[in-house]
């Protein structure tokens, strides 16, 4: 069941810091974050800002080729960033141990989650990015408490 929806309209790239702060406040309750949006919508950019807000100091990059990147925060906590764009099927994602990552208790930020629907935990937050123009996005965050039968 969706227990809350937050909408940020006409967010400019510098405005991502406010969204990142909101997401970091929710990390204690929601460890799984699904990012939806077309190629170039800003998913990776937003995830990098969230990681910076959460205390990641190292250089971050897109895991397009590695599928998963692991980062450590200044508090020695782990954070995982996934990009499933290049996988061919769910078995490929399963074989890298997604269940171990997803149930580790560490934050997981997942790009292209629509490619692995049966591997996703029932409790998650979904972030949908809609491109308005070159520098403006509408971002909708929905929090799913894991008590629903059908997921997005």
Whole-number average pLDDT?
A: 90
Order of helices and strands: EHEHEEHHEEE
Radius of gyration: 14 Å
Quick one: how many beta strands?
7
Which regions have little confidence, pLDDT < 50, spanning 5+ residues? Answer: none
> Helicity, in percent?
10-25%
Number of helices: 4
Shape: globular
Derived structural class? alpha/beta
Q: Look at the structure and give the CATH class.
A: Alpha Beta
Structure, explained:
- With 152 residues, this protein is of the alpha/beta class.
- It is 22% helix and 34% strand.
- The protein has a 7-stranded mixed beta sheet with strand order 1-7-6-2-5-4-3, covered by helices on one side.
- Strand 6 (123-133) and strand 7 (136-145) form a beta hairpin.
- Helix 1 packs across helix 2.
- It is globular, with a radius of gyration of 14 Å.
- The model has no long low-confidence stretch (mean pLDDT 90).
How are the SSEs ordered, and which strands pair?
Elements: E1 2-12, H1 16-26, E2 32-36, H2 43-53, E3 68-72, E4 78-83, H3 90-95, H4 98-102, E5 108-111, E6 123-133, E7 136-145
Parallel strand pairs: 2-5, 2-6, 4-5
Antiparallel strand pairs: 1-7, 3-4, 6-7
Task: Summarize it.
The protein is α/β, with parallel strands linked by helices and 152 residues long. It has helices at residues 16-26, 43-53, 90-95, 98-102; strands at 2-12, 32-36, 68-72, 78-83, 108-111, 123-133, 136-145.
